[in-house]
Amino acid sequence: MTHRTVIVGAGIAGVSAAAALRSAGYDGTIDLIGQEPELPYRRPPVSKEIVRGDKSADEIRIKKAEWYEQQGIGLRLGASVVGLDVDARAVRLSEGDPLLYDHLLLATGGRARSPWQAAGVRTLRGLADVPRLKDELAAKKAVVIVGAGLIGSEIAASARGLGCDVTLLETASLPLPRLLPPELGQMYVDLHRAEGTDLHTGVMVSSIEDHDGQTDVRAVDGRTWTAPVVVVAVGMDPHVELAEVAGIVIASPADGGGIVVDDRGRTSAPGVFAAGDVANQPNGVLGGRHRVEHWQGAQNHGTAVGKVMAGGDDAFVEVPWCWSDQYGANLQVAGWPEGSHDMVVHGSIADRDFIAYLLDDGVVRGAVSIGRPRDVRSARAWIGDHARLDEVLEPSA
Ligand SMILES: Cc1cc2nc3c(=O)[nH]c(=O)nc-3n(C[C@H](O)[C@H](O)[C@H](O)COP(=O)(O)OP(=O)(O)OC[C@H]3O[C@@H](n4cnc5c(N)ncnc54)[C@H](O)[C@@H]3O)c2cc1C
């Protein structure tokens, strides 16, 4: 009997899982269902080259259209899965007949969070969000960005590159608070300000309201910023609704949210897997659980879970790694740099040519770098091995 696999979500996790199934010799059917009408694309350039107008959508496709056909993958775009019956092993689509599955992968990613709905408010998660914002930035309109995490900071850099007046507001005392220790967060304060971005930290936004064709961003302390465009970049919410309604175990927001999976991507329902940004997975290096929102993590997780769905049995263990491009500086972050650690820096933070190793009792737990990608690769291996920095850098004779 033909085996049937349905993948919900045609982002990098879903596409990677489909590719891994075929590479592993799986010869059953694969239906890959994507809500977005676009041929699957790489999301990271959206806040960089795409919003700046330096690349077109066709330059950021994950695979060419023919690839899906050649691989025998039934790609359905602009289609949503709106219901899941785990007992009948069936999913319901927005249009057409239900699909039965033997294996189901939920690779549904998430949506940009926006607590505010004013007409001037924009968010950026995918290509559909781009045209209006790109035109507004290209017209050099002033922009206020709420949130100096990875995406908000990148939009600030892109908007400055286009000649906009940019105000960047952050609740924490430093930018990139989830990625960087304080010493390095300060480097990004200096970088934003040197590039002409008006950065304000310690700002708790209380309301965003339209006002005579402009939009006012008001903070709890009464300060107000006004601009024609406000980009809200305060994180994402994982798309867990399908799983939740079907009774699959979901992590609480305090535990990072997302669909709870084991180290092979299996959810609490038989035959149902989850991968990528939506998956709350065991941390195979440090213990505990976490949800990763990084491109390479989603890609490798999708691949690993695809192999398991094809009959493999390898656990997914990975040291997280991500990058961010702002004002021409390529930041790379590996492992778990947050929390209180000792820091050993090689190179020069001021010159933006360094690697900072973050240590717990001498053991490498994270690394942050600009300009030293090879050192970051070594650091990732050391983090995975729980290596002591003094031993790997200066091995005793
Ligand atoms: C603007 C931006 C810039 C980024 N830059 C970087 C970066 O520089 N470096 C980095 O490491 N990471 C970056 N990331 C994060 C990275 O892109 C994500 O971690 C990655 O895309 C997650 O992939 P995914 O496949 O898990 O989810 P997604 O990419 O979110 O894909 C999930 C797909 O599932 C679809 N879907 C959801 N529900 C349904 C349904 N019911 N039916 C059908 N389809 C559904 C969604 O529409 C979506 O297309 C960035 C993210 C954004 C938004």
Structural class: alpha/beta
The biggest sheet amounts to: 5 strands, parallel
CATH class identity of the largest domain? Alpha Beta
What's the domain count?
3
Provide the residue-averaged pLDDT: 95
Molecular structure report:
With 397 residues, the chain is α/β, with parallel strands linked by helices. It folds into 3 domains: 181 residues, 3-Layer(bba) Sandwich (FAD/NAD(P)-binding domain), CATH 3.50.50; 119 residues, FAD/NAD(P)-binding domain (3-Layer(bba) Sandwich); 66 residues, 2-Layer Sandwich (Enolase-like, domain 1), CATH 3.30.390.30. 24% of the residues lie in helices and 30% in strands. The protein has 10 helices and 26 strands. It has a 5-stranded parallel sheet with strand order 3-2-1-7-19. Helix 1 packs parallel to helix 8. The longest helix is centred in the last third of the chain and has 15 residues. The mean pLDDT is 95. The structure holds flavin-adenine dinucleotide.
